[in-house]
Amino acid sequence: MITGEGLSLRRGGRALLRDVSVQLAAGEVLAVVGPNGAGKSTLLRLLCGDLRPDAGVVLAEGRALPAWRPLDLARRRAVMTQHANLAFPMSARAVVGLGRLPWHGHPGSARDEEAVREAMARAGVLPLAARAYATLSGGEQQRVQLARALAQLDGAPRPAALLLDEPTASLDVAHRVALLRILRELAGEGLAVMVILHDLNEAAIGADRVLMLRDGAVAGQGSVAEVLDPPRLREVYGLDFRRLPDGLVMPDYGAALGP
Amino acid sequence: MAAGVDGIGGTGLALRAPARAVPLAAGLLLASLLAAVLLGPARVSPAGFLAVVADLLGLAPLPAEFAGDRAILSVVRAPRALMGALIGAGLACAGAVMQGLFRNPLADPGLIGVSSGAALMAAAGIVFGGGLMGSRAGLLGLWLLPLLAFAGGLGATFLIARLAMREGSVGVANLLLAGIGVNALCVAGLGLLVAIADDRQARDINFWLLGSLAGARWVHLPVLLALVGLPCLGLLRLARPLNALMLGEREAFHLGVQVETAKRVAVVLAAVAVAAGVAFSGIIAFIGLLVPHLVRMAVGAEHRIVLPCAGLLGGALLVAADLVARSLAAPAELPVGVVTALLGAPFFLLLLRRQSA
Amino acid sequence: MRRRSLLAAGPALLAARAARAVPSRVVCVGGALTECAFALGAGSRLVAVDTTSLVPPAAQRLPNIGYMRALPTEGLVALHPDLLLLSEEAGPPAAIEVLRAARMPIRTVPDGAGGEAAVAKLRAVAEALELPAEPMASALAEDWAALDAPIAALPTRPRGIFVLSGSSGAPLVSGRDTHADAAIRAAGAVNLVEGYRGYRPLSPEMAARMAPDFILMMDHALEAAGGPEAVLRMPALAVTPAAAARRVVPMPGSHLNFGPRAAEARRALALALRPGATLPALPERPWLRG
């Protein structure tokens, strides 16, 4: 669905991304992991068209991103950013409703009401519908934003993509698991899902493939077992990791913290 | 529930059926227009009113005793009320759009330099163009001041937009900062003009800065319809992009909005609508800032409701304020910009208290 | 053919003239015009005046239409005047245009300074009111002329400045082409400000260099500024010889009208600027009482 080839981006004399290539296919969940400042968000911004790369090209369905009309792109690609704060007070339901904006004037807008309700139900925020968005907790706001992205993709032609930037950051553990399950379901429905995660184990249980970045370059790309490999992790994070069952990994806290 | 206005774009916090808000605001504007034509220091009898209307519609010739009533109704009041409605609508609509664009409820058209640029050029006209202005100087004299003010308002806006341009994109933060700088320059220039002006010119500048609709004539209305009415219609079409912009510029782009285009269209249309209005009325405070704010408190954030409501209420408020301005101190007149603030600010503060309570 | 139409129109014209009564609801905008109307005995015909109409005191009891540079259109129309006497200083032009469109009977009168201008104003107002200008106009011309020689013969030529207002920061001082300038010169004195026209703020440096012997002010402006003591304490004025000699000269604002009292005002000012000097008295003019 979305392909990045040889992406590089420099800002202020610093290379944020160096020759990164990535393929996001329909029906898979791709987790992007890496230390702080590795270029994860930058990569996501390049792939969704917020930024133009200095070198390389981003293709959506084989067509270069700048050749797309923003509206056509919006009907098959939703993005959940990290910090969406509102300019004016709105209800949670109204925020989710904004996800239907690209469908205005399209036959798809006949489903607006159902799309909003179903997306909110799926994200578990239906009880929050009438609450003021600003009064919600950080985690609740993230789930509302997820619902907005889901509402946007309701009725989208396939292939379609959902890109998420650290969607689990403010969620409690139960909601994290719920979110990862939703992403899996979406992939099962034929969506291409790319999600930036900090928790390697969330990547391990939630993703089909993992892309690991370090200092703006690819430090590993492939299956969970391939990428979340203790020697590689040691190289990237500078920490010893232990392998746990089911592909999970755990930092060797004892060694790292010392006696 | 139909997927209408109440549905999807986001109804905001106020979940009362805001679809009724637009007809309600339209009703208020109509009521204020009617009041502005019927009421005032010059008393017009109902019979006189009917006779004038009949005459205007070509139904019956005007009896001689109502000639004075016709002068009051159709020469003095009607163009003035319509001018007020258009200018008020332009200010409030542009204000609502600026607030949406800057994602800030404290934004107003003044931020993009329209008012201060217009004021600077108007003052320059008053100080340097003395001999060229006034009815003795003919048509040019009567149109010179509005022309200068219009050019000044647009000029300042384009200068600000130009300065805010970075790599082909107008950053909202840059726009704000460039606006602060250019506004400061204009205010300084205005101060300089007041300093070199003589007493009478300084007083003229002062009155211009307080606003007045006393010069309204029918010939102004086609100009205002074109330069305020049309841009307002264009601004109404920005409701969806502005809704998306409530989430942020990136998010708006993700929702398919051509953010750069929307920003440019918004700035240009708002600047034209405000500059053209201000050109004929002088500075009118409060409407561009607080009417949209008031509307949001009442109907929520949905721009498809906020923009038309703001336009209609802005018009209604200016028309009503002008009625007060010409009636309260009759036979003298108060500056209408002062009255808009006197009428609107307490109402606004009341709403603010009720909301926080 | 032309003759025939004239003949046919004759009775109608006569009827129109008979129907058009002498103006009886007059609005005066401009202090001098109001003063003229009262001097001509038409004070009772005025229905409203503007804020500059302070003389005679009866004018201040009339409804007031506000500042003459911000004319209220509907306020004026609502008074149903059959004559709107406007000083040419009145404005804004756009409002006057509306009044014309509403077919207000407007008469604009030039607002000059000096004896001749005063007489011209009196005659213009008399004509607009359809009243005889005599004997007032001739008397004014005579009285003005009668002062020429005695003022020229006065031994001193006081040098000073006129301060329009001093209540906000730098004093606003009259330059060339102002009524104050004309009044000072008519009183045989010297206005030290020649560098600009109109009223402008005066800097302390300029004031010190000019070294005025007197500071002339309108009495209400002097009061607003806090009295002579306060005026002399203003930085721009404290350094002047006038401050050392405590020479702040008050005068009624109507002295700058150049209306029917122009000669009287000229004499009064000439004396006020020269303590102890004398000038022959002017003849009693009964129409200037009240």
Automatic annotation (TrEMBL), chain A:
State whether keyword Translocase applies. Answer: yes
Superkingdom of the organism of origin: Bacteria
Q: Which Pfam family, giving just one, matches this sequence?
A: ABC_tran
For molecular function, the Gene Ontology terms on record are:
ATP binding; ATP hydrolysis activity
Q: Residue limits of the ABC transporter domain?
A: 2-240
Name the InterPro entries for this protein. Answer: AAA+_ATPase, ABC_transporter-like_ATP-bd, ABC_transporter-like_CS, P-loop_NTPase
Which key words are in the record? ATP-binding, Nucleotide-binding, Translocase, Transport
Q: What does this protein do?
A: Part of the ABC transporter complex HmuTUV involved in hemin import. Responsible for energy coupling to the transport system.
What is this protein's record name?
Answer: Iron complex transport system ATP-binding protein
Please tell me the species this chain comes from.
Muricoccus roseus
UniProtKB/TrEMBL annotation, chain B:
Q: Does the keyword Cell membrane apply?
A: yes
An annotated GO cellular component: plasma membrane
Biological process terms in GO annotation:
siderophore-iron import into cell
**Which Gene3D superfamilies does this UniProt record tie to the protein?**
ABC transporter involved in vitamin B12 uptake, BtuC
Write out the entry's keywords from A to Z: Cell membrane, Membrane, Transmembrane, Transmembrane helix, Transport
Q: Where in the cell is it found?
A: Cell membrane
Record-level Gene Ontology MF annotations: transmembrane transporter activity
Topology term for the membrane: Multi-pass membrane protein
Q: Where are the transmembrane segments?
A: 21-41, 47-68, 80-98, 110-132, 139-161, 173-197, 218-239, 265-293, 305-328, 334-352
Q: Which CDD domains match?
A: TM_ABC_iron-siderophores_like (cd06550)
The UniProt similarity line reads: Belongs to the binding-protein-dependent transport system permease family. FecCD subfamily.
Q: What is this protein called?
A: Iron complex transport system permease protein
Q: Which organism is it from?
A: Muricoccus roseus
TrEMBL record, chain C:
Q: Which residues form the Fe/B12 periplasmic-binding domain?
A: 25-277
Question: Which N-terminal residues, if any, form the signal peptide?
Answer: 1-21
Sorted alphabetically, which PROSITE patterns does this protein's record hold? Answer: FE_B12_PBP
Instruction: Alphabetically list the UniProt keywords.
Output: Signal
- Say which domain of life the source belongs to: Bacteria
SUPFAM superfamilies tied to this protein: Helical backbone' metal receptor (SSF53807)
Q: What is this protein called?
A: Iron complex transport system substrate-binding protein
